[in-house]
Amino acid sequence: MELLDDSIVPERARDVKQEAREFADEYIAPNAEAYYDSGDYPWEVLEAGMDAGLIAQDIGEEYGGKGFDLAQVLAIAEEFYRADAGIALTLQLASFGAEMVEDYGTEEQKEKYLRPVAENEQISGLAVSEPQTGSDLAGMTTKAEKVEGGYELTGEKYWVGNAVEADWLTVYAKTGESDDRYSNYTLFIVETDSDGYEAEHIPEKMGMRASKQGHIVFEDCFVPEENVVGSEGGGFYALADFFNHGRVIVGGHGLGLAAAAIEEAEAFISDREAFGRTIDDFQAVQHTISDMRIGFESARALNWRACEKVANGEDAGYWAALAKTKSTEVATDCAEMGMKLHGGRSNFTDRRIARVYRDVRIPVIYEGANDIQRNLIYRQSR
Ligand SMILES: Cc1cc2nc3c(=O)[nH]c(=O)nc-3n(C[C@H](O)[C@H](O)[C@H](O)COP(=O)(O)OP(=O)(O)OC[C@H]3O[C@@H](n4cnc5c(N)ncnc54)[C@H](O)[C@@H]3O)c2cc1C
Known about the structure:
The chain folds into three domains: 6-118, Acyl-CoA dehydrogenase/oxidase, N-terminal domain (Butyryl-Coa Dehydrogenase, subunit A, domain 1, Orthogonal Bundle), CATH 1.10.540.10; 124-233, Butyryl-CoA Dehydrogenase, subunit A, domain 2; 237-380, Butyryl-CoA Dehydrogenase, subunit A, domain 3, CATH 1.20.140. It contains twelve helices and ten strands. The chain has helices at residues 14-28, 32-38, 43-51, 70-83, 85-92, 98-104, 107-118, 235-269, 283-311, 316-341, 352-359, 370-380; strands at residues 124-127, 143-147, 150-161, 168-174, 185-191, 197-201, 213-224, 228-229, 273-274, 277-278. The strands form three sheets. It has a four-stranded mixed beta sheet with strand order 1-4-5-8. A four-stranded antiparallel beta sheet has the order 2-3-7-6, with no helix packed on it. It has a two-stranded antiparallel ribbon with strand order 9-10. The structure holds flavin-adenine dinucleotide.
């Protein structure tokens, strides 16, 4: 039975889901293994995605995009991640951070920075995490000091998607020292060819090798006043709101990966023979598949419910954290069970199940580690 069926997807997102499925079947799945092996940035797939009108199109029509809403981006995420998580992350990160320029930026910023991303002439990224601090958003130390005409950035960022490849980034930096530690941060648009901006790729990862993250060093990197996004001191709050949307999408990363694990396991068990029969004859094997599907369907129902809640602004932080945690952990569970059913063959590095098993370790961490999500769920339910 089809896992990513569209009956739970709102009608307005069904066409784009179908387009994403066709694109993923033609361009992502057949290239997954080669990009995993090479660890190269999948420029060709990204360009094909741009031609297909599936990249950075959550940006509004008035700035050159298609204005995809949360449900449409979630539908695309499920399909892309089912095909390959590494390539999918690169495709979905081409406009990362740009959303906050759309929500809080000036008209000049939107014309200069947002439009080229929507028109697929540039790509962006979001720089928040640091070598010493990832989870504590109010503990970041990269500083932006006021100088004549703007600010000077000093510090380091780590794990930043597209740090090397992007044209510009939305950078989160400290601008204050007030006792209210959440009011000390500001967002800046930083062009990656600025003096004082140096980025290199971080060491190779075990999963999602077709996506690239970087380590950035800012050394007296000048950013003009007009590149402040929103208000000085408003960065933490803008980011928290942005992550609510992002976490619903990361739930979709988990769902796509879980679907891949289940599909792969189901195909394997009907083919593999043991004790004179195919292993799908054994009840323990059947129950394992049932457990995978129970987890998957529960997570998907929650994730799509959260999508609606977040889109309507109803307790968004709570629902986003629930969805992200459940869906990404169902992916790790399904990958584990899928590996078990593959027996010794689970260890072959070129098996799809092995790639999924490596990749599922990542969405449980990014966009806020799941233990942080549990903190949010508890706090926001009180
Ligand atoms: C592939 C990938 C892509 C990424 N892309 C980006 C990007 O584009 N931009 C960006 O800015 N960042 C990015 N990140 C960084 C990511 O957001 C951080 O890794 C994440 O927030 C966790 O931070 P950390 O790794 O520093 O872990 P830490 O903060 O050191 O936490 C380690 C562990 O400690 C525990 N822990 C920490 N604090 C608490 C607490 N308060 N309560 C309970 N448990 C706690 C948790 O178990 C947590 O997993 C990416 C990461 C990966 C792996």
